[in-house]
Amino acid sequence: MMNITQDMIKDSFSERTFYRGLDYYENGYVIGPVILDNTLYARVIGTMETPYEVKAFINNHKIDTKCTCPVGYKCKHAVALLLNWVHEPSSFIDSNKFITSLNSMSKHEIINIVKKIINHNPAIVCEYSINADERPQINIDAISNKIDWIVCEDLDYYHIWDAVRKLEEIQDIADGLMDKELYKNAAEIYLELIKGCITAFDQGADDSGGSMGEFAIQCVSDFNQCMKQINDPAYKDMLLETILDIANNEDYGLDTWDMLFGIINKDNISHVEEYLLEKLNAEKKYASESHYQYKKNNIIHVLMDLYAHIGMPQEKLRLAQFELITRDDHIRLANVLIGEKRYEDAFDIIKKGMALSEGSFNDLQKLYFSIASILIDQKPDLVDFSTSIDFAFDLMSRYFYKDDYEKIKKVFSGIGKLEEFKATMLTNMPNRNAVVSALLHDGDLQAAIDVILTEPKISSNIIIDVSKTAVDKGMEVESSRLTKIAIERGWMNAGPPMDTLLKVMTGVLDMHTLENMCNSIIKKGSYGNALMLIPYLLDRYPELSAALVMNFITHMPVEVVGQVACAVSKKSPKQGASLCRIRINEDILRSHIHYDKVVFLFKIMRGICSSIGKESDWVRCIRSFAAENKGKKKLIDMMRKEFEMSI
Hints:
By secondary structure, this protein is mainly alpha-helical. Among the domains are: 6-104, no CATH class; 114-129 and 136-232; 575-647, no CATH class. Helix content is 66%, strand content 4%. The protein has 32 helices and five strands. β3 (52-59) and β4 (62-67) form a beta hairpin. Mean pLDDT is 91; it is low at 130-134.
């Protein structure tokens, strides 16, 4: 332990960490160093308001460390601690000597020391209870005060982790109590931790990383585990009011409603319902309508689940009928009726809900077809074609989902109206993108192509789906036309299907057609589409690639400019060199950070000129350029170095 040296410390840490730790040591940031056997301990001042706690373990010249800073180990704070030991070992308090000194102290003095330790860590007494049957009464007020102290700080994104770490230390105490089957004591600590997290959120803690939310949810889960082990209804009733207040007021997604399930029973559920409905009635008087409906949905669903949990289904049904005002209310009741296999009643409730304006329309439509798909086997006459058409069109009004569409088809097939539905959809459904997707899903490729060719508002992504199917079926001409239309209509995602489609398109379409497409891209300023298309035009029609590069010259990656310049120079060296020179003129006007691009393009120009035996033209060009830009010394030096010539 005594033989570590500064060189050993330096070898155990990165160079940067070592010198930062050296700076911390030299500035006197190490506080209260202690040694216990092979372990060094101290607090080290860092960027937080409270110092970090650092430990260093030394065994056979091997160094291991632990720190409460974000790094956690092998950090600059550990370096500072170790350097303090190397250079000032006498500053360390020897714990063994302190322990020996206890022999000479009075009982009163030792008790005062223990009191100070307990005040710092109140539940430590639980670790040292005399036997497993003992039930120590924890000082919950002291623990609560410590939690309040932890969460009262300004917990921004950079400091919340430290608060969670401190809360986890208290959680460890509760975990230890639970391991000893001291479930009530553990539950009370978990409850205080949950309240502390809610307080932190109420005060604006930045938990965008999610660490405190996850911690609180774990405490809720641990609390519930304790409740499962406690068979004391009176004790649970004592907690009921507190938990109701927490769950009703907390809106941070911490699963606090779950805490009720461990304490609810047939004797206290009426009190729970009375309490929650009273709170809901207060919301109705003072809150906005949207907030009231939000709270109502939460509370009624919780009460329904609680009644189901204790085996009271009729009470669940009663609550499901609470205030049937919105679509969501009708969905709630319909789901309960479905659970009881009362499909006709549920179907009637859904149709009544459809007539309302408030709530989730899409969910009602899905539920309508779920119930209808059951009724068609029992009473198909209850499923009206006209009503079902309207609901189907509404359900498909925004997006096409295969599962929804299959359920819709099943219903129309069940009432013998599938072909009539498809014909009506083709001619009358407002969402034409969904029509094309449905036709493609059904394998009616030609009909999908016809809709795209005749209707100008089909989205590019839908067109690409159809084009991919066409090329898979060997319809390359049709696929090429569709791909061209998609590109002309807007921005495209250059995903895997596009590689195949662009290769097919540039191989099938003639130059005139492709030129028109390029002109459309240029007119719309679709840089992304231009960049995507250039590599596929390069071999067959390099002049079209050059036209696209020329019109987006400033934004094009310099490598693409060089590649296109080389390709087009095979037919027109002058055009290739001109592309390079135009981009060079753009880059030198923008910033010195583009000088490397200028050098790169001059290399391309050199290759073009050399390929036709005119490198002398390139030499004249580069010297003329240097004369015109002699003030740009950094650029000129870069060119001299690259081309090894005087310019």
